Amino acid sequence: TGAVKCWGFNGYGVLADGTTTNSNVPVEVNHSTGMRAVAIATPGYGACAIFENDSVYCWGQSYTVTAINGPVTNGSVQIDFAVGRTAVSIDGTSDHMCAILDNGSMNCWGVNTYGQWGDGSCSSVIPSSGCDGENGNTPVHVNLSTGSSAIAISTGAGSTCAILDNYSLQCWGQQSGEFDGTSDNILLPHTMNFTDGADIAYSDQDMDGDGTRNALDTHMAGDDDGDGVPVPDDPYPSNPARWMNCDPGSWGRLTCTEAEPGHFAATGDLYHQPCQTGTYQPESGYPLCYSASAGNYASFAQATAQTLCSAGTYQPNVGQTSCIDSSPGNYTNPNFGDAGSYSSSAFNISANSAEYNGSIDSNSDVQDLFMMSVPKDAGVTVGLTSPSGADFDLAIYDYNLTLLNSSYSTAYDETSTNNTNFSDNSNLYILVAPYNGTGHYTLQVWLFSTLDGAIIGNPSMVVDVEIGAGQYQCSEGTYQPYSNQSSCVDASPGYYVPDNGSISQTPCSSGSYQPLMGQSSCLLASLGNYVDTPAAIDQTPANAGHYVNTTGATEDVACSAGTYQPNTGQTSCLDADAGHYVGVT
To answer: CATH number, domain at 370?
Structure first.
C-alpha cells in the first residue's frame, strides 16, 4: 500500500504519530504527504523516505522535533533538491543522510562533523579541528569524480561510500586507516584501491535504464522471469529466484562465494556441501572432496584433513572413516610401509591429483604396485622422480594388467593414459620398479577430465603412499600374541619362532637349547653334552663316569663295568688299566 509503520523509541517523534510516546507495536506514520513511500532510511532518531513522485520527506530529530520529548511541529519536512532533480536512492546512518538523484549526482545533509557530506567542508565544536561549517538539513552536492555518476550509496556512523558507474568505490569522512591508511578525516571522495583492482562487483542496479532497479523491474526487455537479469546473461531465464550460475568450486543464488575448506561446490550449486565422512578438503574453492588415502581416515563430516592411522592400526582402502587393528602375528608402524608387488597386494591410491612419496628400501624390494579407480571420462598422467644416484622405471597397466604405457629411460620418467578411453570407471595399475639403486621416490599423479582437460584435485598435496596402508607379518624369530600392536616380540632364550606371522613362541625340546633372543630354531646338544629339560638356554656337560657320543642327547650314559671316565663332557669311557679293574657301572 505504500504506508509506513514504525515502532520503538519516540522521544524525537520518529514514529510520526503526532506524539513523543514510545510504542512497542507498529503505528502508522502520519507524514502528511498523502503519497505512498517507495524507499525509507532511518538515520539516528529520524527517518526519511522517497515517495511515489520521487520527492523526499523526513521527520524526527532536527526535522519535526528539536529536543527530546519536545513539541511536534509538523508531520514531515520536505528536502529540497536542485530545481528539477528527484531522488532515486536514499540511505542514512547515525545523523546524516545521502541520496542519489535522477541524474546520477549525489546530495548529503544532516550532521557533517567528519566531512561525511563529501563537499570539502566539515562542522565541529572543537576549535583545533579546523572545521568551520555548520550542520543542516539543506542538501549539498557531493564532489564525486568528474564525469562520474553514483549507482549505489552506503552511509556509516561518520562516513559515506558510493559505487560509481565505472564500478570504482569512493569513500569519505571519518576513518581509522581503512580508506587511505591514515586516521585523518577525508573531506572529499577518495577512490579506494584494492589488491585485486579498483573495480568492484555490483548486481543491484538498473541495467535497462528505466529508473527501476533490476530486482524490482518485472518489465525489463528479455527478462521473462522478472529477476532483473535479461537473457542471454541469465543462466536461469525461467527461475526468478536465481540469476547466477557459479563456476565449479563456488556457490550462490545471487552472487558467487568460494566453498569453504571441508566443503565443495559443483557447477551451479546454490550452497556449498559438507564433505562426507571418509572424505576431506583442505582448501577453499574446490568442486570436490578427496577420499581419504589408504593408510588414512576421515572420521567426521566437513573434515579439512585426513588422519594417518596410528601405530598398531592400518587401512588398505580409500575413503574410510576409521582404521583396522593389526591382527595377532602382525604389526603396523607409522614409520614403515611397503607396497605389494602383485595385483592382489597393490596399494590403493585416491582418485585425485597428488604427490605420492614412496621408497624402495632394499634390493629385496623388487617393485611397488599401486591401484587407482579412475572415474569415467578421466585420464591420468604419472611422473616418477627417482632418488639421487638411482634409476627407477615406471609403467601403467589397465584393469587386466595389460601394459598401457611405460618409461624406462632416465631418472625422471613420465607416462599417461591419454590414448586410452575410460568410458566407465576402471582400475589403473601404476608400477614402480628399480633398475638400479634404492631410496625414496616421488610419484606425481595428475588426474584430469578428458572432456575439458581440467585437473581434478590438487597436484601439490603430499601423501606418504606406503605408510599405514597394510599390516606386516612378524618375521621368523619374533611373534605377536595381541592385536593392535606396533612391533613384534623377540623369541626368548630357550624358545624359537620358525615361521612368519606367528602368534606365539615355541620352547626348545629336550636335547636342544637356545641361549639367544629372537631365534628361529634351536641348537642340538653337541657331543659330550646333553639337555634333559625343554626350554633350555644351555647344554649340560656329561658327568664324570658318564659320556655322550651323539648329538641332541637328552641324558648322559654311565660308563660300563671295566671302563671309567674321570672328566666331564666326554664322548667315551676309558678301559681299566692293567692291574686295575672297575667292577661297577
So the answer is: 2.60.120.380
